[in-house]
Amino acid sequence: MLKIGNHLSSSKGYKAMGETALKLDADTFAFFTRNPRGGQAKKIDEEDVKAFLQLAKEHHFEKLVAHAPYTLNPCSADAHLREFARNTFEDDLKRMEYTPGNYYNFHPGSHVKQGVDVGIEYIAEMLNDVLTKEQSTTVLLETMAGKGSEVGRNFQELRAVLDRVELKEKMGVCLDTCHVWDGGYDIVNDLDGVLEEFDKIIGLDRLCAIHLNDSMNGCGSHKDRHAKIGEGQIGLEALVRVINHPKLRQLPFILETPNDDAGYAAEIALLRSKYVE
Predict the structure, then answer these.
(1) Please, which pLDDT band fits residue 56 given cuts at 50, 70 and 90?
(2) Surface-to-core class of residue 4, CB atoms within 10 Å of its CB (0-12 exposed, 13-18 middle, 19+ buried)
(3) What is the pLDDT of residues 60-80, one digit of tens each?
């Protein structure tokens, strides 16, 4: 069965997110752990979480893919911003334990002209500082499009971070179809080749989730502009090959397309109709 959902607003709580997912015929979803453009996090309502966990159990939800705020930059040139990233990350991992066993995805950050090697060291330093043996959450590095000074613009950079993390068993990768396409990986004409390269450099055993997005721009554009499924440069046919690929089909797929609920419901229905059981 296709494991698919979209990015939901966490402002109304966990149970409300679960109910919205069910209305969209989703069996997983993503959510920001706090304001994506700021640092504030709502206090956890334990009764709300308990109600959501019961709902998720009854409806056989798949793993959730929480998302760190965009403001988190663990490889900033500013020590105060790195400290903010570390504190936010640590707090989010504690909050994730209210819904144990799920994923926490984050953008590796931008090295801001310090050089990618410096950026990689800072990211790994933060991860080694905040990851714990006791946590049940798997932290996912996201593949990036390579705009500006982003770290994670290719598989080698993600591998370099993973190599420096001590608790490697707590780490994985989330592959964003728009990002890898914009980053120069031709998933339209050579999906098998891209996955072979991923496996060779990182290992497909590290791939835990897919952000399923079309792209407004061409391969190698380094733009990071998501498009609705089938309305971008990747196209429906190529994305259907992604969800049906034998090495990917069991992963959770998260839509981050520019849509409202009706649009997400339509995309989920479309992709379910194209999934080969």
Answers:
(1) very high
(2) buried
(3) 999 999 999 999 999 999 999
Distance, C-alpha 13 to centroid of its chain:
20
Rounded Cα–Cα distance for residues 259 and 238 (Å): 20
Residue 243 near residue 249 (C-beta atoms within 8 A): yes
Average pLDDT (166-173) is 98
Alpha helix ranges (H) inside 64-208: 79-96, 116-130, 155-164, 177-182, 191-201
State how far the alpha carbon of 85 is from the alpha carbons of 51, 185, 207, 225, 237, in Å. 30, 29, 24, 25, 38
Question: Does residue 264 surpass a pLDDT of 90?
Answer: yes
What is the pLDDT at residue 42? 87
Token pair, residue 220, equals 């190698």
Note whether 137 and 172 are within 8 A (CB): no
The C-alpha atoms of residue 189 and residue 96 are separated, in whole angstroms, by 38
**What DSSP character marks residue 205?**
G
Residue pair 182/145 in contact by the 8 Å Cβ criterion: yes
Angle between helices 46-58 and 14-23 (to 10 degrees): 30
12 has a pLDDT exceeding 90 = no
Rounded CA separation 188/218 (Å):
11
* Local structure of 249: helix, strand or coil: coil
Residue 37 binned pLDDT confidence (cut-offs 50, 70, 90)? confident
Strands 226-227 and 214-215: antiparallel
Give percent of the chain above pLDDT 90: 95
Alpha carbon of residue 86 to chain centroid: 19
Q: Smallest Cα–Cα separation from 47: which of 12, 15, 80?
A: 15
Q: Which of 65, 58, 59, 76 is closest to 25 using CA atoms?
A: 59
Which amino acid is present at 239? L
